[in-house]
Amino acid sequence: MTRISTLSFALALPALAAGAAVAMASKADSAWSPVDYNFVAQANLGAPFQIASGRIAEEKATTVDIRDYADLMVVSHKPVVDALAAILRRERVTAPPNTLLQGAYDGMIASLKADRAATFDRDYVEGQLGYQKGNAALFRYEIQNGTDPDLKEFAQRTLPKIEDHLQRALKLAKSGEIARASSQ
Q1: What is the CATH T-level fold of the domain 3-178, as seen in this structure?
Q2: Residues 6+ apart with CB under 8 A from 140
Q3: Is the pLDDT of residue 181 over 60?
Q4: Cβ within 8 Å of residue 133, ≥6 positions away
Q5: 32 CA to centre of own chain
Q6: Residue 3, Cβ neighbours under 10 Å: how many?
Q7: Higher pLDDT residue, 8 or 163?
Q8: pLDDT at residue 66 in the model
Q9: What ranges in 28-98 are assigned the alpha helix state H?
C-alpha cells in the first residue's frame, strides 16, 4: 500500500471506528449516548493528532503557506483539547479508548516523519483535506444526533473553525503547491 493510500485509508478510520465506540458505549455505565461516546472517542484523539502533525509540518514543509497552515493547526487545536478535557472533567468521564484510530494516527505521524520535501507537502496537505472533511462530518453528526448538551455546544463552537481549516486546506491544494509536488 502506498503512503497516500495508507493515509487515505487511515483518514477513513473515524467512520469505521464508530462501530467500536458505539458497541463500547452500549456497555458503559454513562448517560452519554453511543453517538456522544463515538464523538468523544474520535475528537479526543483528533485534536492532539492535529497538533502533532502540525508541529512536524512547521519544521518540514517546503513552503511558507504550508508552514503557516501547520502553525494554525497547532495553535487552534490547543484550546480544543483543553475545552474537551474540561467537559470530561466536569462530567467525571474518561474518554473511551479508540485503539484502531490511535494506531492509524501513529502510522500517519510515522509516515510524515519519513517523508521529505515535496512528498511531505503533498502528503500533509492531502491528509489535511481528508481529515478536515471527516472531522466536519463528525462534528455535524454530533450536533444533529448527540444527546449531551455540553458536547453538542462544544461541537457547535468548534465546527466553524473546522470548516475554516478545510477551506484553507482546499486553498493550499489548489495553489499549485501540491500539483508541483506530485509531479516531482
Answers
A1: Ferritin (1.20.1260)
A2: 155, 159
A3: no
A4: 166
A5: 22
A6: 18
A7: 163
A8: 96
A9: 34-60, 64-90
Phi-psi region at 92: left, alpha or beta (left = phi > 0; alpha = psi -120 to 50) = left
Cα(123)–Cα(89) distance, integer angstroms: 35
State the Cα–Cα distance between residues 6 and 68, nearest whole angstrom: 25
Work out the pLDDT band at 94, boundaries 50, 70, 90: confident
C-alpha cell at 130: 481528508
Question: Stretch 158-173: mean pLDDT, rounded?
Answer: 96
Which of 86, 73, 71, 88 has its CA nearest to residue 32? 88
Return the C-alpha cell found at 3.
Answer: 503512503
For residue 128, give the amino acid letter.
Q
Phi and psi at residue 33, in whole multiples of 5°?
Answer: -80, 165
Domain ranges of the chain: 3-178
Residue 16 is which amino acid? L
Name, in order, each residue with C-beta under 8 angstroms of 13's C-beta and a sequence gap of 6 or more.
100, 101, 104
The mean pLDDT of 71-97, rounded to a whole number, is 93
Say if residue 29's pLDDT is above 60: no
Question: What is the rounded CA–CA span in Å between residue 142 and residue 122?
Answer: 30
